[in-house]
Amino acid sequence: MVRPNEEVEALLQEYADLVLITGGDAFKARAYEKAARAVGGYHADVSRLDAKGLQEIPNVGRSIAEKVTEYLRTGRMPAVEDVRSKIPPGVRELMGIPTLGPKKAMLLYQDLHISSVPQLLDAIHQERLRDLKGFGPKTEENILHGIALMQAAGDRVPLNVAMEVAEDIVAELSAITGCERCTYAGSLRRMRETIGDVDILVAARGSGPFMAAFTRLPGTAEVIARGEKKTSIRTAKGLQVDLRVVPPDSWGAGLQYFTGSRPHNIRTREMAVHHKLKLSEYGLFHAKSGRKVVSRTEEEVYARLGLPWIPPTLREDRGEVAAGLRGELPELIQEADIRGDLHTHTDLTDGLAPLEEMVEAAARRGLRYYAITDHAPNLSMQRMTDEKVLAQRERVRELDGKHRKMRLLHGTELNIDADGSVDWPPEFLAGFDLCVASVHSHFNQGRDALTRRLVTACEHPEVNIIGHPTTRIIGKRPALDMDLDAVFAACARTGTALEINSHPDRLDLCDDHILRAKRYGVKFAVNTDAHAPLHLANLRYGVGTAQRGWLTAEDVINTWPLDRLRRFLRKDALARA
Ligand code: DGT
Ligand code: CA
Ligand code: CA
Ligand code: ZN
Q1: Pocket of ligand 1 (CB under 6 A)
Q2: Do residues 504 and 476 make contact, with C-beta atoms less than 8 angstroms apart?
């Protein structure tokens, strides 16, 4: 259970923001921010720790530990409530605009008395922001963009948030007597990057006990509608969950119907009509007689339509039905195909756990190889140096071989500078087993410059993987504006892989871009970018995204045996052939 950790993380982060905007000590704000991240990434449930246990979390000192204990005991953190009361709630809403930030939000409030998003929009259109120090036309554009992003994300939640809620509910309902099948359907089963609501499906003879239990779950804050076939609730965090109970005999048809997507279902219904059949959530029926043909399993339903079973991650009407008819569905990559992780951090830079712990956790997950890729010196706040990274390499070499089945690779995550160059000279880079290179600054350079920058990075003989290629943060930061086709072509030409970053806030590349890149013959790396042992479990979301991009194991370099991977990392055309 990670939820108490996330709750405390959010609270400490809020406190850090509030300290900043009320003009408090920047050092204190930073301390709370670090503690927030550490709690979020901590392996143990904080609600089970006492003050002493809490202080064992990195970056959590006595004073923070005391505040957290009090919160866990009473549900309140007076220090936060105290600063909250000094600021109108609207201002905190402003802080939430991705491109604005706490300081500017406070300035808007103090100087222009703006305390809501609509007021801010008015002020921008009346050009009242232009007189403020540090605000210009570019700032306005950025703020407008931020508001648009926030509104586009709307009420949808990140994939992992929905997944955790759904898996808890599935576990609860599965334990009820009479439950023959239970799973989540909808966009979650299709692994979309954000989820509107969670759809749970149960197969049972009677729905009563399931509906009753569902409305009484600890996470249920509000019952939206209760019925015999469908009940909807809202969780404390505002996420809607729909439960549908179907007769065991209709399981396959129900699951197919409620998994969607709607456009995919339109295709399958067309196929049914073509076969003089009718498809509904109850089954596949003869159009004329109304007699049931099949309904028990998804496989049977698809088979009777002349199709192989179509994996949920493909059900987006992107040609999967036509491919199925031709017998050309891709053999999708599975989580078990992943042999190694090629982008991870330790507490030498901004990770939360020491090298040994990360390696231990990776070995427990059954990986066959594992690359440590801490940040390089140009990300100056991480304070990397030649000495530090070389000392780390020594430790990596010593550790290598301690885990019988898992090899260690020593790499780094380079920064792609504004001109496409990276940290460290080529001779130094040659000492790494692999280099990830990512954009961490100058996001708004303009299309031509950004394209050139990425292409230049691909052409670097030591750069093997472009990390989180578009740098988007879902709902917060837009993708880099660049000519993706030019970048994809450069990757294919130079033997540079594109990352599919598994962090649920990133999922970068996204499914559409993966599909497009694959046409250029690009290879991919599904990585976690883990900053803590817990993050290694995010791999499933990266694999889900890769599946949505129709990738097979062959397309993904970290499914390959190590010797084949090493040849790819040499980056010469012959070795790749
Ligand atoms: P979401 O919730 O916006 O992330 O996306 P979905 O795909 O989970 O959509 P949702 O929850 O509205 O519906 C779940 C599935 O039910 C959807 O993918 C397809 C299926 N479905 C097909 N036709 C209908 C319909 O008329 N009403 C509803 N509620 N669901 C339908
Ligand atoms: Ca849904
Ligand atoms: Ca729904
Ligand atoms: Zn990273």
Answers
A1: 186-187, 192, 195-197, 199, 257-258, 260-262, 265
A2: no
Ligand 2 centroid to residue 170 C-alpha, Å: 15
Domain-ending residue, one of 153, 179, 204 = 153
Atom of ligand 1 minimally distant from the CA of 257: 20
Q: Would you state the pLDDT for residue 573?
A: 61
Contacts 24+ apart (CB under 8 A), 537-542: 537/365, 538/160, 538/502, 538/503, 538/504, 539/335, 539/338, 539/341, 539/502, 540/335, 540/502, 541/159, 541/160, 541/163, 541/191, 541/502, 541/503, 541/504, 541/507, 542/500, 542/501, 542/502, 542/507
Residue 137 is predicted with a pLDDT of: 81
pLDDT of residue 574: 53
Q: With pLDDT > 90 as the criterion, what percentage of the chain qualifies?
A: 75
Name residue 230's beta-bridge partners.
244
Nearest-CA residue for ligand 1 atom 24 is 262
CB 436 within 8 A of CB 379: no
Looking at the structure of the chain, the number of domains it has is 4
- Residue pair 339/308 in contact (Cβ under 8 Å)? The answer is no
Among 18-22, 233-237, 468-472, the minimum mean pLDDT is found in 18-22
| Nearest Cα to Cα of residue 258 among 299, 199, 315 | 199
Give the length of the chain: 577
How far apart, in whole angstroms, are the C-alpha atoms of residue 91 and residue 114?
A: 8
Question: Which residue carries 């578009």 as its tokens?
Answer: 470
CATH of the domain at 179: 3.30.460.10
Tell me whether residue 252 is in a domain.
no
pLDDT of res. 554? 98
Torsion sign across C-alpha atoms 249, 250, 255, 256: positive
Asked if residue 202 and residue 126 are part of one domain, the reply reads: no
Q: Whose CA is nearest to atom 22 of ligand 1?
A: 262
Confidence (pTM): 0.84
Averaged pLDDT, 182-200: 98
48 and 9 within one domain: yes
Bridge partners of 438?
415
Q: What are phi and psi of 43, to 5 degrees?
A: -75, -25
What residues does the ion ligand 4 have nearby, CB within 5 Å?
413, 529
Beta-strand (E) ranges in 281-386? 283-286, 292-294, 340-341, 369-375
CA distance 213 to 175: 11
Tokens (6 digits) for 413: 């995550």
Q: Which ligand is nearest to the CA of 413?
A: 4
Residues 347 and 310 in one domain: no
Answer for the pair 479, 471: CB distance below 8 angstroms, yes or no: yes
pLDDT at 1 over 60: no
Question: Mind listing the pLDDT tens digit for each residue in 255-301?
Answer: 999 999 999 999 999 999 999 999 999 999 999 999 999 999 999 99
Q: Supply the angle between the helices 117-125 and 137-153 in degrees, to the nearest 10.
A: 140
Q: pLDDT value at position 20?
A: 81
Q: Tell me the CA–centroid distance for residue 261 and ligand 1, in Å.
A: 7
